[in-house]
Amino acid sequence: xxxxxxxxxxxxxRRSRRRQTSHLKKVPETLALREELKAHCKKIAEGIDxxxxxxxxxxxxxxxxxxxxxxxxxxxxxxxxxxxxxxxWHDQVAAVPPERRLFLLPHCLKHSEGCPADYDQFGLDCKTxxxxxxxxxxxxxxxxxxxxxxxxxxxxVLKIIVSxxxxxxxxxxxxxxxxxxxDKILLAGIPxxxxxxxxxxxxxxSVDEHWVEQMVATPFKESKKQTRTYVHxxxxxxxxxxxxxxxxxxxxxxxxxxxxxxxxTGTTGLDPIAATEAIAVDFLGRGGKHSRPxxxxxxYDALNGNQGTLDAEVVKSFPDSVxxxxxxxxxxxxxxxxxxxxxxxxxxxxxxxxLHQTHGIPTAINVGDYLIGMGYRxxxxxxxxxxxxxxxxxxxxxxxxxxxxxxxxxxxxxxRDNGDKRLKPLDALKVYAMKTAPAFEAALLTGARLAGxxxxxxxxxxxxxxxxxxxxxxxxxxxxxxxxxxxxxxxGGDLLCGRPTLLWALALxxxxxxxxxxxxxxxxxxxMHPHHRLMKARQLYLKADVFETAQRLVDKYQxxxxxxxxxxxxxxxxxxxxxxxxTVLSRSESTYTPTIEFAEPTMKDALPIVSS
Length: 612
Ligand code: SF4
Prior knowledge:
This protein is mainly alpha-helical. Helix 7 (about 175-185) links the parallel strand 5 and strand 6. The strands form three sheets. A four-stranded parallel beta sheet has the order 4-1-5-6, sandwiched between helices. A two-stranded antiparallel ribbon has the order 2-3. Helix 14 runs antiparallel to helix 16 (about 360-380) and helix 14 runs antiparallel to helix 20 (about 435-450). The protein has helices spanning about 1-5, 30-45, 55-70, 75-95, 135-145, 155-160, 175-185, 210-215, 230-240, 245-250, 270-285, 290-300, 310-315, 320-345, 355-360, 360-380, 385, 390-415, 425-435, 435-450, 460-480, 495, 500-510, 515-525, 530-545, 545-565, 570-585; strands at about 100-105, 120, 125, 145-150, 170-175, 190-195, 350, 350-355. It has a domain at about 1-215. Bound molecules: iron/sulfur cluster. Iron/sulfur cluster binds near residues 110 and 117.
């Protein structure tokens, strides 16, 4: 049964992601019960084809059946899925030498009253006082050569993995964290094993310690078996932005000097003729998750043999022309960030002062323009190598995306700066389709066109990107209210700065005239304290049920994207589209606190695509 399931493609009919899962996260009460379930999971995992990672749906199906066969409650499902997943990845983790593994521990294992450890940028700096099991686990892991981190959350872990520092993860975490964080790591196909904490209390927690010791002690064992992973492609995309590689792909004409290496002198003394190019290349290399180039490379690979998910060397051997096209997607995005920071008067970008802050608005506008030119040039210069038709098609797609995104951005600015704050949900959705979807579309279509004519994918990819992009943008609206449940001042920024959001449009549609007037007054009344404006606006949004309606709309757009993906062949491209849906539209179970792997699109995303 299990072997069959492991060999199948992801289920063609996928379920909505937004489900309450708290009732599915019970830890089996006794060690004997946990041992029994673990033994069953091990057996099942041995029968599963390890060539392709299990999707969440597949894993859930297998675990539900196991629990039902054993007459155990559904509430063990989350725990059982973690154990099955760990058993599935066991051999792949074992195939990574310990010094290339990351051991991740949660803070909450520490002795909360007397722990003398401090926190630094790498998490908790355990002083090995011996009061909790962290010290013992650390000692064993250190001796074996592991990198050890006492921290939580997928962003830092993914960063460490993508940077090439480690190749596998073993960890301890509560089921809540495992659901949100480790899940994304597994989706990317990163070898990972975990032992769930016995509770999710966030304080003085405990764990089956001998399981952790066993997991850490997993001996290195070479394996010929390989499981497909997006790590090579994620690393390939990140590698493009390393200074030497970036210089080799961009081919600078004016100066080889790097601003970042000018010992804090910035552009002082730089040849004016070379300054624009130098600032642009420097900004291109700064920050970001490089999600856009990843999508292009992954689409190219999916339609070009799909070997990049198995072998890092395949990605390293991608032609420079393919890398340059992937780079061009990010170049447009970076250009949009420069311009948007000016439009929104944002002060910082990637933890540094925004370009217009350091160089002034005229220079920043000019650098943004230069980056747009560079984006087109990165593709056009390879016309001979990739073929004139290919280059022409890619450039046409990029230009089309550029125009629509600028129109979407323009519509948003026009609405923001216009006195008339009426907005219909349909118009808000139209703006979202123009502003966010073309970026996904450009990255996907560029990758597909690099792999061949592939005209049959044009329409499905456009439709998929539209649904994914709109769903993503609605999630971003919801995320803007994240934290407001505790009346935090950080929530509701969209409303205060007058962004035309779907939530606003839904509220206007549902409220009566009196409530509408009050909502209008909240945006205009700058004398009222922002805290009170947001409190009142939230009440009105709740009255209009906009959060729930918006969640349902995300479900709808997700379902539409999945239906399009269901019909895509080959399997490699379908899996990539599912991966994008799962990561871009990832949500927690709370009413409106979505967690998104990709950074949110704001007005910063006026050009090709996903994260900043
Ligand atoms: S062993 Fe480390 S983490 Fe645990 S209480 Fe002592 S210093 Fe804190």
